[in-house]
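1st attempt posting a full record on here, be nice pls
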Amino acid sequence: MTPFLVAIAGGSGSGKSVLTHAVAAALGAERVATLAHDRYYRDRKDLLPIERSRLNYDVPDALDQALFREHLMALRLGQPIVPPVYCFVTHRRDGWGMAIVPREIVLIEGILLFHDPDIRNAFDVRIFVDAPDDVRLRRRISRDTIERGRTPDAVVAQCRSTVFPAHSRYVEPSRARADLVLLNAGRLEPVVEVATAVIRSELARRHGGSGIANAA
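the predicted structure (as tokens):
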């Protein structure tokens, strides 16, 4: 069986990762494999730490798109991949992770999944997760201070200088490429229900069954 590939895109802090894990649980963990696009950030070992900290990590060139495209096509063919491990503190690639074996459904999340046409068109369903800027900023501050050792002031400065401008230029326009746009600014449960229903419907359609064509 060809794996059913689902893209969950949206801006930084929109809740893509939380939604991805919740949808995977709702669909059944035994049926789902997951992958994060941000594991494919380029290794910046050739730059000094201060230079790495000044780079814009929300633009297409920040990612190793060639490797990601190669892995994406392998997953589509039902082949396992070994994704890189990326350290967000040092902005360095830190070896290679555990092999990901494609299952019936593969959920892939990332901010720029719809930018590259070859990548965008490899997905069976494209979901865009939206959230207001102030909500995304609060989530980003919470995540980066806890998980990435940054200060609130540093997070706000980065969002204002690179994250939000890149969002306006690259991420927000890509929502027009989505099959489904979901607002994720309140309770997560209704968002998970809609995303799961659409995935199940489209998966049933692939198998010639009946299902809901669209969900609001």
